[in-house]
Amino acid sequence: MKRRIGLLTTFILLLLLMLQPIGIITLSAGVETANTVAVKLTGAVRSYNPKNETTIRLMRGNTEMYKTVIAETTGSGPLEQPFTFDSVMPGIYTLVVSKPCHTVYTVHAVAIGNVDLDLTQDSRPEISMMKLRCGDINGDGLINDVDLTFLWMLSNYNRAKNNVTHPLCDLNGDGMINDMDLTILWMAQNYNRGAIEIQYSDVAIPTIELAVSHGGEYLVPISASNITDFTGMAVTVTYDPKLLRLMNVAEQIYDVPTAVGAIPGTGITIEDITPDSITLTFDNPIPQGKKWNGVITIFRFKALATGTATISVW
Ligand SMILES: [Ca+2]
Ligand SMILES: [Ca+2]
Fold first, then answer.
1. Is residue 26 domain-shared with residue 43, that is, in the same domain?
2. Residue 283 three-state SS
3. Could you tell me if residue 84 is inside a domain?
4. CB within 10 Å: which end of the chain, N or C, has fewer?
5. Which residues surround ligand 1, an ion (CB under 5 A)?
6. Highest mean pLDDT among 45-49, 218-222, 264-268, 297-301
7. CATH code, domain carrying 95
8. How far is the CA of 192 from the centre of ligand 1 (A)?
9. Ligand found nearest the CA of 142
10. What's this model's pTM, rounded to 2 decimal places?
């Protein structure tokens, strides 16, 4: 399947001389070159126990960009349920599905373009229906003898859910903890297995490995090319907070506070900050028929320790 999102070429050497001896790294943001309008993303999940809700997140690194839930409902057993994100900006995301008693289901490099995307229409069964593994009672990410031990406990097994030590042992949600739950846990696709990781596309997140020395400062220009419209284009930069402290996100203006909000005089708005990421949008009108190429901003990092730091642009 052809992806609408291309990785853009890197460039920019102009500033090198000015900025030495600070290290220069150039990253390029992967962005849609056509209209950047929000689209709808739909998919489906198969899991057990409809009495527990299912959470689906679109992540960039550890940063949650969007979240939707399949609400808890009545019934028991396995079932297939749809989910919808009504308004997702184009970009690359990691889709993460989580639910109590199930291991995490992750779909990497979900590339969202400028048309609605219905994952249920994907030719790959692991994407058209995300089948969660069930039986992780203690929530450690594995379904194994530890979970089996919980289920077998005299204070749990063959009892009603409201009269047990560990209600989560009711895997299918029928109100009882019994051989039906045991059967689920024992299934070959569940037992002695853990999280599921699927690759949606081969789009790579632009990433650099930066060798840093404790106390050193590093400039990281973020560049993009062939942009026809910045409207709604959000760029997220993720990094390792143990190695790097973000000092500045608009290096052309020194000492800009890194708080959510517009940075005066830059056309840049900080939309979100987490301990390991920052998301920016850009107010940079482009004349009809023109394309924009260049540095969109320059980050300054300070190294908190010596090591190899990973920085990614989403
Ligand atoms: Ca477990
Ligand atoms: Ca049960």
1. no
2. coil
3. yes
4. N
5. 136, 138, 140, 142, 147
6. 45-49
7. 2.60.40.10
8. 9
9. 1
10. 0.77
